[in-house]
Amino acid sequence: MIYTVTLNPAFDKTVEIPSLTVGAVNRITGMRTDPGGKGINVSKVIRELGGESTAVGILGGRTGRMIQDALEAMEIKTGFRFSEGETRTNLKVIDPVNHTNTDINEPGCSVPEEVLNGLLGDLRGELKKGDIVVLSGSLPKGAPKDTYGIWVRTCKECGARVFLDVDGELLAAGIREKPYLIKPNDNELSVLTGKKLYTLEELNREARALMESHGIAKAVVSMGERGALYLTERETICAEGLRVPVKSTVGAGDSMVAALAVSEESGRSLEETVRLCTACGAANVMCSGTQAAKYDVISGLMHEVVFHRL
Ligand SMILES: Nc1ncnc2c1ncn2[C@@H]1O[C@H](COP(=O)(O)OP(=O)(O)OP(=O)(O)O)[C@@H](O)[C@H]1O
Ligand SMILES: [Mg+2]
Q: How many degrees, rounded to 5, is the angle at CA 143 between CA 141 and CA 146?
């Protein structure tokens, strides 16, 4: 089973505003809402890929119940704990004229440590050897900075393969516990290493050094429209990004993580994994909001993926 963990979920409200102007009245020409937060986005894409996952995390209030109901309507299994307060609503503004995405995110409410520990205990009770746990996204207010370190360690003790997709100090804390896979983007890898990394060679070299020094089996460094590097212990594949019409780049990385988890679970080859991940990322940017792309769009793009070994 694949478990996705979203400790700071959000109800995503995506609006379209042509020529968004600060300090003026702006008119919305289109709107949609989606249950969101990075782990939840991963679960939605896994569902679209025909896979199964259980979305776990912390919700609050009426907004929290709306998220749980929406996931259950999508036939995604859930294992949330409810905490005090209201799950946040995040506003995403797409401007189709200026081709910009503007995110306005609420901070979310704080979560007591006993709720976090209770959720981790629930997960520990469920995990079996060989399961995959995807840890991604920000932490709720009040959560200790090394929360992901604790979660990585605990899930590994249960025999799970842990995928870590977080940034900044949360990534630094999480990788100390040797997750199975990390998926930083180029900027996140630069911040982590304290070096300005841009070329494929620089990104490959630093990601490999990190894998070797920390005992991480797999790393994927995504580079937005430039594509991504896929590193295993033995090799690196570089896949080019597909040229597709871009509606919203929000969640492209989450789509890629979903494809990585499904590929890992089904034992796909590295080449097949690269095709699925690249197609999923590209199909995601063709959609507005954080809804998952449709499987026929993804499968149509898989044949167009171009990659080479570094
Ligand atoms: N503009 C784009 N055109 C085509 N493919 C894209 C584009 N942006 C992203 N992708 C695909 O999606 C993958 C992941 O994107 P990206 O590197 O932006 O992830 P990210 O920064 O982690 O995103 P997020 O965390 O917001 O979900 C890329 O490696 C690429 O294959
Ligand atoms: Mg990301």
A: 135
Query: Distance, CA 99 to ligand 1 centroid (Å)?
Result: 16
CA 290 to ligand 1 center in whole angstroms? 13
Tokens of 177: 């516990």
d(CA 263, CA 45): 13
Mapped onto helix, strand or coil, the DSSP state of residue 41 is helix
pLDDT confidence of 289, banded at 50, 70, 90?
A: low
**Looking at the domain that runs over 2-309, which CATH code has it been given?**
3.40.1190.20
Residues having CB closer than 6 A to ligand 1 are 185, 222-225, 227-228, 241-242, 244, 246, 249-254, 256, 278, 281-282, 285
Helices 270-285 and 295-302 cross at an angle (nearest 10°) of: 130
Q: For residue 265, how far is its CA from the centre of ligand 2 (angstroms)?
A: 21
Query: pLDDT value at position 277?
Result: 98
Q: 40-90: per-residue pLDDT in tens?
A: 999 999 999 999 999 999 999 999 999 999 999 999 999 999 999 999 999
State which H helix or E strand residue 231 sits in.
strand 228-231
Ligand 1 atom closest to the CA of 41, numbered from 1: 27
Do residues 292 and 265 lie in contact, with contact meaning Cβ atoms separated by under 8 Å? no
Q: What is the mean pLDDT of the chain?
A: 95
Whether the pLDDT of residue 158 is over 80: the answer is yes
Edge-to-edge strand order for the sheet containing 236-239?
77-82, 53-59, 2-6, 132-136, 161-165, 181-182, 218-222, 228-231, 236-239, 307-309
